[in-house]
Amino acid sequence: MTAPLYKIRAQSRYGFINRQGEVVIEPQYLEAEDFYHGFSRVRFNEKLVPMDAMGRLLLKHLFNFVGFFEQGLARAQLVNRWGYIDTRGNLVVDIQFEDAGDFGDGLAPVRRNNRYGFIRPDGTWKIRPQFEAAGEFASGLAPVQLVEKWGYIDEDGEMAIAPQFDSGRSFQGDVAVVQQGNYWGLINSEGELLVEPQFELQDGYSNGEFFDGMAIIVQDGLYGFIDDEGNLAIPPAFGFAGDFGEGLAPVEQHGRFGFIDKSGNICIPPRFEDAGLLANGLAPVKANGHWGFIGPTGEWLIPPKYDSALPFHDGLALVGHQGAWRYVDTVGQVVWEEK
Questions:
Q1: CB neighbourhood size of 124 (10 A)
Q2: Helix residue spans in 46-188 (DSSP H)
Q3: Alpha-carbon distance 327 to 193, whole Å?
């Protein structure tokens, strides 16, 4: 597990620091993404190129696009065909497919001759192309489309859950989101409906993605939560809700934000102008036009004095102050600031 790195900005160029605020990768790129599974992607010669935590670019081959690394491999596009590279930049599955997805459970969905099948990490077929569309394997099952409906197959390619849904997503643990019309619900690995599709699909929302064991639901414009067993944990009653983190979620009532627990109890009364995810024991909140951080009981831990603030991760949070970036630690000390 590599130590976390944090994106910094200097004269409109991006680089990275470590937890101590030391510059590890000098700001030199016009575009850079946060690290994920040990790699960032940075803009180089008008392409997004993978970069490791030592600042080394994977330049053995130049592609039109390279995806994220999953299970040690990333999909790579050259012109209009796809293959896969490893974490050293070696092309391990030749460029040959019309489309390609990420690896999950040791298999990846790819398209050939307008049909999807699944390959192993060495590029050999595990499940021959036969589906109209397909998603990634997780928990031993993968969503596939057959004759305009979606079902799920096992790792041998056998239909485990018959095609019956308008859409289906990969499993999250023991549950998966399925869609009928403009509504989503949940099934278990046996294909049983835990929750009938009834929750409105929302643009810009994860629509059934679980965080801290809870997923946001929207009905008639009000926000609530279900748990990862399909139980209605918190009936829709809020004007807005954010994701759960460390047992609390930000919610809005009458134009003010506070926090609830997983039983729906208001733990921090709505008194803020905005609020974000609780992480590392702190949550960003806005009061009197400025952002600071509170603890899980609502006390101020870092006073509101910033123009913007993102949630903490791995002990640091990015804040904005008079147009400049800063990273602060959990006691509010500035670890790095943009000059």
A1: 8
A2: none
A3: 45
